[in-house]
Amino acid sequence: MRSFKHKYPTLFASVALALSCSVTAQEQSKTTQEDIEIIEVSPRGLISYVSATASKTAVPIIKTPVSVSVLTAQRISDLGAETLQDAIGYVAGVYNGPYGVDTRGDWSKIRGVDPLLYVDGLQKLFGNYNNTRTNPYALESVEILKGPSSVLYGQGSTGGIVNAVSKLPNADTGGEIWAQVGNYERKQLAIDYNTTFGEQQEYQARAVAMYRDSGTQTDYVDDNTLMLAPSFTWLASDETKVTVLANLQRNESGSSTQFFPHEGTILPAKYGQIPSERFVSEPGWDKYDTDQQAITAIIEHSFDLDTHIKFSGRYSDSTAEYRTIYSWPPKFEADKRTVNRIASLTDSSARSLTMDLQFHKYLELDALKLTMVSGVDYQNADTDSDRGRGVAAPLDLYNPVYGLSTELPTAVVDNPENTLNNKQLGAYAQVTAEVNNWVLNAALRYDDVSNQLQTEGANKNSQTATTGRIGVLYQFENGLAPYASYSESFKAVFGQKAQGGAYKPLEGEQVELGLKYQPAGTEHLITASIFEIKDKNQVRKVSPEFEVQDGEIEVKGFELEAQLEWQYLDVYAAYSYSDTEQDITPLTSMELFAAQDLRTLITDDAPLSATPKHLASVWATYRADNLLPGLKFGAGVRHVGETYDGSRTIVLNGQTLHEQLVTDNFNLIDMMIGYDIDQYQFSLQIDNVSDKTVITSCLYRGDCFYGQRRTVSANVKYKF
């Protein structure tokens, strides 16, 4: 067996060089802790000027040559976000909830592609529908890194990552109790308390907890949760800090997503629009119940003012019991009101161990400042999914009668082919160099990814990849900072092609030009970017038994985001434009013969599904302290442009064989009114004030998704 060092020659050379420079020049470093400018958040805690997600070190956003957006806990609270999906609805380039209201998880499209979800810099989700939903009340902030990010985080999408940052202990003592009631019989109680103790206040502890009993806009579907997130920090010395965070969570819910047919949603139907609250499954049988026990350890040690290491590790064990009934294929029968249904049972689990060991070094050599990060990260995840299938009685979507399915499946079947072990081992090195007004960021990474069935004698599939990123930025004295960057991503694709040979990894690349602006003497932060993304080696099915790996996704776009803050008014505005296309190489005559069905080709050269060309939003909060101290008003407008079903219109000899479906654009209005007096905070928050029924997307396979209806919550918080 070759040694670890021999397997990663390029990365180890880079890391060794960085460490060598650190040792050689350590005596030349003249930086003290007081010399480093520490920028945190705006006075009201709404605008963060630092993001650790983009570079794995706390670098000001104005000096980061990539696109990153940060939502603080105060911003999430002002927006009244009840889920992580709600929280990111005002971020430029992000389409939250492309598949409508879904109690099973938080979905989004960033630059046209599904992002990966991280918590505290470590990947959270492994497998499908076997993890608990992240609770936004347990978060200090949410950081959205846009574009390919494999160079620091390993395999992933070209869309980027969403990194949820947990609430951790601090030096303060105090907390809050939060009570909430809302429509759909929502009742919620939460607490967040932090304290310090010890002879020298070297111990810090925090407890975040929530209980919720709630329905949803879908009949017979609950959204209940019980969450406890205790954490403890030990300041072992001036140089060493140890933090342990646990997350215990149980969610009890069901399937709010109903996969309604085109007819009756986006297309006219004989009996009119299908009600958005309609439930296609069976009451009392349908469920999506998840449990999670996770523990995270974060250890930080400083060797001197300019050198430190950080270790993050998490073990997570989650299970999901999933029972659902849905219409498939999603279309009406001859009576134009009844759908056939399939019953599905799934028991899933995911056990994962994730770790990241980082070495940080800061050097100052005359006019040159170097910030270096190198490290090794590791993922080991076992996922299992046992399933059962059956047939349920047909259902009338306009006058449903439940309880007619008397022989629903009761037990799952052990599926050894769905018991997988996934591993990823990566080594990375990054350097940020500042000289005069120039900032140069360069990074390189090597990954070894494997996938193996947990059955005796199963073969181990593995792929490797090297990815990089380079960016340059110039800071003008007036606060303007133009930049340019190039970044790469990869995602393993395992298996053998029917025509022979192994699949290649997906390979993504992005070129981005941008401008950041932080006007001197203000709290404002404005960012703009244009980008072009290509994701190569896409796999597409041209028949039930035949796949080809010839596709390329191309995304071109523009984004503008402005966070503005004055004495009484703050504004969060965003706009994005995305032009997407799935390009393919024309099939050979032999491949066309294997396809045998023109319908399999309708996704060729088509826009990506569930991705609006235009997204725009603005949220403004007026704090009327000049009129009545403690009074505040907030309102927002979200515009979502047309989305496409992932196909293109096909006309042959003057006859339309297939017509692309396009959803209508829509606008939604949100609002908030609040009043703070002494230790109490009162607020009323309403999403989708006009209770507009909207379709967030439709897919060419036949189904459409309804968006969030009017959601009202009344809140009281007591600070102590």
From TrEMBL:
GO terms for biological process: siderophore transport. GO terms for molecular function: siderophore uptake transmembrane transporter activity; signaling receptor activity. Residues 238-689 form the TonB-dependent receptor-like beta-barrel domain. It holds the Pfam family TonB_dep_Rec_b-barrel. Keywords: Cell outer membrane, Ion transport, Iron, Iron transport, Membrane, Receptor, Signal, TonB box, Transmembrane, Transmembrane beta strand, Transport. SUPFAM superfamilies: Porins (SSF56935). CDD domains: ligand_gated_channel (cd01347). Residues 1-25 form the signal peptide. It is a multi-pass membrane protein. The keyword Mitochondrion does not apply. Residues 62-161 form the TonB-dependent receptor plug domain. One of its GO terms (cellular component) is cell outer membrane. It is found in: Cell outer membrane. The keyword Ribosomal protein does not apply. NCBIfam families: TonB-siderophor (TIGR01783). Belongs to the TonB-dependent receptor family. This is Iron complex outermembrane recepter protein. The lineage of its organism: Bacteria, Pseudomonadati, Pseudomonadota, Gammaproteobacteria, Alteromonadales.
